[in-house]
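Changelog-adjacent note: as of this version, every example in the card shows the full chain rather than a window. The one below runs 467 residues end to end.
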Amino acid sequence: MKTADVATRLSVATLFVVLCGCGDSTAGSPDSGNDAGGEQWKLEWVGDGMPGTVAASGQLELSTQVTLGDVAQSGVTVSFEIVFGGGMISQAAVVTDASGIASTTWTAGPISGRAVLRASIDQAAVFIDHHVDVAAVQPLVPQPFGDVGALLEGAGIDGSTEGLVFDDAGRLFLAVPGNLVAMRPDGTAQLVPVDGDGLTSPLGMAWDYLRKVIWVADAGSVRKVSISEVGGTITATATTMAGFDGLVTPNSVAIADNRYVYFTDSCTGGVYRFQPDADTVVLETVAMFDVTVRGGPNGLAFDGSGLLWVTTENVGLLCPDSGADVTLNHGGLYSIDLSGGLAGGPVQPTPRLEGFAMFGDGLAFDADGTMYVIFDMFDGFTLTDSSVWVVPASADEPPYKVISAPVPDGATSPDRLIANIAWGYDEFGSSRLYMSLLAVVLVVSERGAMVVDVGIGGQSLLPADLP
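Full-length structure tokens:
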């Protein structure tokens, strides 16, 4: 259940038009609401135009009436909740007045799609649902989070930020050559030199909740970074996984079922996995991409059903020996079904989007299982758009843009390139989506992080079988 003061959400709500379908409300369990005398509890939507209200401000007034038999019931607590979709409800539990009426306000979240709103009375096991379509007026624009760029410049550190990850101790980490950047919820940041094998050209990152380490895709390797903090001082040590010969540019990392670490290598075209705790750590090939046709695999994430989703990108510049045409849109999205295992060899990726952009990058899922994917559009070597898109589950529905990197006043293209995304939690804000920036020579120079409130939390990354 999501609740908050609506007043704090008005700036977000103005982005939306709420379209309500009068014929799309449903009631549940009416018979279970009978009292001992056989009279039936009833809960229905009431009010001026309810449930077909259209609010230009992005708010919808929800009013219900509770009756027992034909008599309105006062003093009954009605609970309001968001079953599906984003947004906020101003008051989650409301006591009915003398007319049996209980009212609250729902403010639409900033992501278009469908929401399901529910009113219920616990004492009678009666509920009623209302389905609402939310249409976004324009993509959200993220705001800078902290000033990582100034921190790096002041320390004389070259190289770009790329990956980002939350650990379970209330910290957000980014990575640059030789260092991690640890960030707090207030945006303050500190450099954390990485000892041991260090970091060379870190890209994607993933937090391992079981082993309490960060896995980092680095130049020609995957590295395990251990973190400790004593008296406010954070230290980090990297260990390179041995025996992974033939890797070129590991790019993104994901953890699955407390057993495997998955990663992509954009230049070899491979998606791989390994078991860190195995007696003998062996690299398995999960899937292969023809980098000259589909692009090299980049971002990856698991959905709630266990499907592995992978973005691809044009690797003509990243991998000069690949033979990929640098002018072609190779940015796409593919799924990999691992339910059958790898006994028969690598799995054939299934396309969801092909040739959609020049580059596909990070991706993540919200609490409802909706997929958010970064795509970057180019005109020649000029960045024209760096945005986060929602890709609907149905292949019949086209993707739509929900977040876009800002375009400075007087400019025609964005000055930031979004690389990876991750949902915050606790003090970072569970409905806030954090983005890392990638600096590319002659294209964009901004490094660091950005953030935007999307009105819904992210998919839990805590493994279900965590001891």
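Structural remarks: The first strand starts at residue 16 and ends at 28.
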